Fold:
Amino acid sequence: MSHTATTASTPETLRARAVELDAEHAATDRRDAFVLPDGVVYLDGNSLGALSVAAREATADAISRQWGEQLIRAWNESGWWTAPERVGDRIASLVGAPAGSVVVGDSTTVSLYKAVHAAARLRPGRTVVLTDPDSFPTDVHVTRGVCEQLGLTLELVSPRDAVTRLEGSDDVALASYSHVDYRTGELWDLAAITTAAHDAGALSCWDLCHSAGVVEVGLAVGRADFAVGCGYKYLSGGPGAPAFIYVAPEHLAAFTNPILGWNGHATPFAMSPDHVPADGITRARVGTPPVLGIAALEGALTAYDGLDMGDVRRRSLSLTGFFVECLDALGVDLPVVTPRDETRGSQVSLRHPDAYAVVQALIARGVIGDFREADIVRLGFAPLYLSHEDALAAAVHLRDVLDGREYERPEFATRAAVT
Ligand SMILES: *Cc1c(COP(=O)(O)O)cnc(C)c1O
Structure:
């Protein structure tokens, strides 16, 4: 360990620095918009975003007034039918996409299936789909399934090697990657991989589960072809919130939804047995949207009203950077897996042989993070409701858990179903 506690890094000077940084980033502080229990430092907004006041109110209104009083009239009177596109437009503005290119509705898994399947079919004659072997497992499963169904070959290539694999090739139909690695927090170069794919005549698809709402994604400037993302992580749409799918405007006319449902039909209420796809992003819809889930998500997204994603990203980098600075200053000697430079999302992942128990011991102290196989302590910093003071508090708790070997207590060893 190269760092020792000097006068430049005593808890008092760290606290003063935290206060200073919080003041510097005051314009992006939305803590008051969220409902968090006292005494909790919530570092799991990358797994289940915190409840916001607006999400709670939107859900209560959707249940009591819309469902309870308007009944079936709410499909028109409360805009239930058009909610997938309306909320899609809100998300589009956060991920650098034009209005009319994003729709919400299905899970991330199903959305990815639609995107990968449709994208692969736009490159007939090409036989290979690239994805990351270290992706979140559902991404690998879905991509493998699509390849089996379409008679294509799944090639597992790290995003680190994707540009090299694509250069000079003519067999790849699609490069499908996560923007941020869910485990390590590495941020991959969406524009560079997309450009390499295009130069090789291929398309790109991006999973934004760990970048939407915290990173300036830049789908349009990066010329991404397809993307999907999660509603219940940093976007705080609530447990099981609907995901979103992006189809670049130039692909919409040729986009064929692999699930031809009535919601993607040009005239759903004509009740015709012939399938005529709707114009625009509506053709990416499938069946009746999860109205209550969309209501919560729509409420949650108001937390971003008036915020610039560049400022949100700067706050996020400042929080994670300061947290690592605190770990160094406090002498917490765990390997930091997440890049220290700016090629990271909004989390800090650390390695520890007893990572599961370390996370449990932190939770017992009110610092809620999560564990990821095999030895990762994963701490997500949702920028809108976390402060630099929270980051310092979390670092101090982590130091105390390690110094006191609290993770060795037997009660922290038992694994629950959801880790
Ligand atoms: C969270 C996450 C998912 C979740 O998919 P669901 O269909 O919502 O279960 C998928 N992919 C990635 C990369 C994720 O981080």
About this structure: Residues 55-304 form a domain with the Aspartate Aminotransferase; domain 2 fold (CATH 3.40.640.10).
